[in-house]
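re: ur question from yesterday

yeah so i grabbed the chain u mentioned. its 303 aa long if i counted rite. heres the sequnce exactly as i have it in my notes:
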Amino acid sequence: MQRLTNLFPVWVLLGSAAAVVYPPAFTWFSGPFIVWGLAVIMLGMGITLTTNDFAQVLRTPRPVFLGVIGQFTIMPLVGWSLARLLALDTPLAVGLILVSCCPGGTASNVVTYIARANLALSLLMTMCSTFGAVLLTPLLTAVLAGTYVDVDAFGLFRSTAQVVLLPVITGVVLNQRLPGLVRLVLPVAPFIAVLAIVLICASIIGQNADTVVAAAPRLLAAVTLLHVFGFGLGWLLARVLRFDERTARTASIEVGMQNSGLGVVLATSNFAHPLTAVPSALSATMHSIIGSFLAALWRRNPR
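ran it thru and got these structure tokens back, copy pasting raw so excuse formatting
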């Protein structure tokens, strides 16, 4: 099961390609299915956390907040800048900004594990950025995407709290109260999360297949550059602040990889135009490919 999970970039890429060729294979997974899919992903993250993880943040705050600060400064600014420079159509620009304002995703933990970087630190970074996203994702999206359209910041806050905060807290409680059940579920939880990500992204791409193909050059360039800058600047920030190479690699992965599933749910729940969700769906594919390439490179050159 671990090997299947580690191949998640392949599944996302195959699912997205298949959705362009034959959309009906995935478009059935829409509406409440997407929301519940993200809830399953967030619940899977929650059951990996214990109260000791929260205490660990207080014991080692500097490297943890390195990832969180990089996540909510580098990515939103890069996303907004690329939307402007590449003159994306309004819904695609808003979607790119939205996904750039999302927290790190659980996929970053998988890539960190493959890369032999600091997995414990990656988990703590993801946890903190996820909780921070409840306030920061709506706020940053309202400020940056508000230059294109009116943004309902409170609506984004409500949606983020519902699909992030509640499932994660539920997972933490289950881990504490029902550890036996959690031990049974944990081996398959990562692969279930991968399947949910594939279905979410392929569904959005399938629903907008013609537009995705038509807008492919600029849109793919924007999403690719977003993650290239995220990985690169995340690593650079850590090195400038004199963190060791292993921590820098962990920060690079955490900053460069977004919770694209959250971006899809927030886009479909809070913005009228269906294309707003497309950058998030493409983001999941692109950050998986780049992250996997770096993981393979770094795995061969451990520091």
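noticed a couple things. The chain has a mean pLDDT of 85. also The chain is about 80% helix and 0% strand.
anyway ttyl
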